[in-house]
Amino acid sequence: MQQLAKNIAAARHKCGLTQGQLADLVGVSHSAVSKWEMGATCPDIALLAPIARALHTTPDALLNFRPQLDSGQVQSLVAACSALLVREGLCPAWEQAKALVHQYPADSLLLLKLGSFAQQLVLCCQDEKQAKQVLQWGCELLERCREIAQGETAQAAIVALTAYYSMLERTDEAVYLLEQQPPNSFDPRRQLAPLYARQGKDDRAAELAQQDLYMCAFMAVTDLMLLANIAQKGQDARRQQFLLQRAIDVAQVLGLQVGLGQNLFLALAGCLATQGEVESALDALERYADLAARWPDVGEIGTYPWFDRIKMTAQPMGEALLKPHLCQMVEEQTQLDSLRRHPRYAAVLQRLRALGEQSGENIP
């Protein structure tokens, strides 16, 4: 009863209604609504649907009933939204995603996946205002997910939410959210791989060790790129170049060029261009185009003996949405201004435009 009372009050406040206005909408007295919200009485079951309609929610949400989908169903529903986005554009896909949230308002995994889906929607926005609206919608889903989820789903929501806060320049909220999390410098599960090996479960041990190595390599490259960005802000181009080259070295040694390498080479091209190293900058820009053409073909990663137990899957929907923006990413790099009249620069843009035009051909 108390949870229902809290849910009615919270939904009413969210809609900006007074108790009297809600009472008028559902045909009861002001005092009846007051008693509901204090938990003194429960609304008649026949009134749940009218109350939910008045509060733009569902009876399930008011009652905290949580119809749960399995992971396969969630994946299929979100994939259908992605396919619709590619075929018909932003509005139909967004409306379908909103309908799913309305249908399953308390499914934490679906909220997480649709909240993350907002990143794909943003790529199709016409302007910054629309992109901000989409990201705010994504934040709402992730915030709701964090409130009701547990374990890995809740942690994934926090990671995605801090990224969205950052994109919306809500940095203080992102910092506060992360500072509230308990320190976790050591994951006890990392002890599983050697223990499995001692049990003779070598396949499982190798799989876990490779997953750990992949995440460590990914974080090493990401952190080196962050340090390079800090050097750039400090106008220390030499330091930036050194850090970017070390990040490229790590990616190349461990076979992570596809997926990580192209962004590194684009940043390196800009760094070299600002130092007047035109030919080297063009070399880096061409390398960016080479790797962009191979993305999202991640099959090569599995050929390395240190990653051959990890299941990598390409994301054709992501390809269709991202590749049309590859050329724009280059054109928006002001650091590359000194290269714009060079024939090799023009050739790179031509390649990237062609990739964007071809990217949707294999999308169902």
Structural key phrases:
globular; Serine Threonine Protein Phosphatase 5, Tetratricopeptide repeat; 434 Repressor (Amino-terminal Domain); 364 residues; mainly alpha; 3 domains; single chain; 19 helices
What does this structure look like?
- The chain is an all-alpha fold and 364 residues long.
- The protein folds into three domains: 2-63, 434 Repressor (Amino-terminal Domain); 71-179, Serine Threonine Protein Phosphatase 5, Tetratricopeptide repeat, CATH 1.25.40; 188-358, Serine Threonine Protein Phosphatase 5, Tetratricopeptide repeat, CATH 1.25.40.
- It has 19 helices and no strands.
- Helix 9 packs antiparallel against helix 10.
- The mean pLDDT is 85.
- One of its GO terms (molecular function) is DNA binding.
- This is Helix-turn-helix transcriptional regulator.
- InterPro entries: Cro/C1-type_HTH (IPR001387), Lambda_DNA-bd_dom_sf (IPR010982).
- It comes from Neobittarella massiliensis (ex Bilen et al. 2018).
